[in-house]
Amino acid sequence: MNRHMNRTYPFVHPILILAITLLSKGTLNAQESDAFTTLDIQLAYTSNFNRTEFHNYWEAGQGVRAAIETPFYVGKTVAGAQVISYESKMDRIPGFESYYLFLGWGMEKLLISGVTITAGFQAGNDLMIFKAAGGIVRESELEASIFSGIAVTLPHKYELQCTISRQVLNTHRRIVRDFITLGIGYTIATPTWLRDFLE
Questions:
Q1: For strand 76-88 and strand 63-71, is the pairing parallel, antiparallel, or unpaired?
Q2: What is the largest CA-CA distance in the chain?
Q3: d(CA 199, CA 181)
Q4: If you compute the radius of gyration of the chain from its CA atoms, what whole number of angstroms results?
Q5: Sorting pLDDT into bands at 50, 70 and 90, what band is 142?
Q6: CA atoms within 13 A on the CB side of 86
Q7: 49-99 residue pLDDT tens
Q8: How far apart (Å, rounded) are the C-alpha atoms in residues 17 and 161?
Q9: 23 with 76: CB under 8 angstroms?
Q10: b vs e for 121-140, b when ≥16 Cβ sit within 10 Å of the residue's Cβ?
Q11: What secondary structure does DSSP assign to 63-86, as a single string?
Q12: Measured at the alpha carbon of residue 54, what is the angle toward residues 183 and 92, in degrees to the nearest 5?
């Protein structure tokens, strides 16, 4: 891609690498005895903020992200979905809806009481549904991402969460999108039947 047409925010990579490095030197909070004991139900707003050649053709709308995270034997594991609309900037190119379904793994480290940092990676499938003049066109591609974030504990089992991620879509010409995500999490105890199934 033409570097003069792209704005990929090079600071994103150092932030993600620094967070992962800090976490790797710390003690993981999730131990084997804690695996699957809780479910953190997350709902968030997400926005694609970088600009590349891809964005000359499509304008990203505001997105919604939902996920469920649980302690794993090491770190934490997550499953979720992200939905974003992309409006076309040209009449001859259709807009599309992006449905990203993913699984992921990460670590967290307590900074101070009530504040943790997180980092990890996710991978999954991005289903893109184009609204073409001749009908609906579907395209499915593999996608992977790395992320880093901060979480602040709130009363009554709630948590305020903010994350920066870099998502790479494995199309013929690789698409790199940077996202900032702000949302809320609510933690519950995992039902016994579900924990037995997961274990």
A1: antiparallel
A2: 56
A3: 30
A4: 18
A5: very high
A6: 22
A7: 999 999 999 999 999 999 999 999 889 999 999 999 999 999 889 999 999
A8: 19
A9: no
A10: bbebebebbbeeeeeeeeee
A11: EEEEEEEEE-SSSEEEEEEEEEEE
A12: 115
Residue 19: closest CA among 147, 152, 144: 147
* Coil/strand/helix, residue 90: coil
Tokens encoding 108: 């967290």
Total residue length of the chain: 199
- Interatomic CA distance for residues 93 and 136, integer angstroms: 13
**Tokens, residue 157:** 């089992």
Domains of the chain: residue spans and CATH: 12-198 (2.40.160.20)
